[in-house]
Specification:
Elements lengths: L2 E6 L5 E5 L19 E4 L2 H8 L23
Antiparallel strand pairs: 1-2, 1-3
The protein binds zinc ion.
The site of zinc ion (ZN) has 8 residues, from loops.
């Protein structure tokens, strides 16, 4: 299942959830403060890699570390 990144509007912390695609836009509860005021954010490395494709492919992803990013295949 893909990993989705969410940000909490209460404490502004980001967290990740592994969900099925059909659940991607469901309300996610903040892992830190348990607030339901969260929204999904688009993975930075996905949009960044998209933007830089063909320009600078090496080391262009700063938002994923190790194997945590399912979008860019790191
Ligand atoms: Zn929170």
């Amino acid at each position: 299942m893909p990993i989705y990144e969410y940000i909490c509007e209460e404490c502004l912390k980001k967290f990740e959830l592994v969900r099925s695609i059909s659940q991607a836009d469901d309300a996610a509860v903040c892992a830190s403060c348990r607030s339901a005021k969260t929204h999904r954010i688009v993975s930075k490395c996905f949009s960044k890699g998209d933007h830089l494709s063909g320009n600078n492919s090496a080391g262009s992803c700063q938002s994923c570390s190790g194997g945590s990013c399912s979008h860019c295949g790191h």
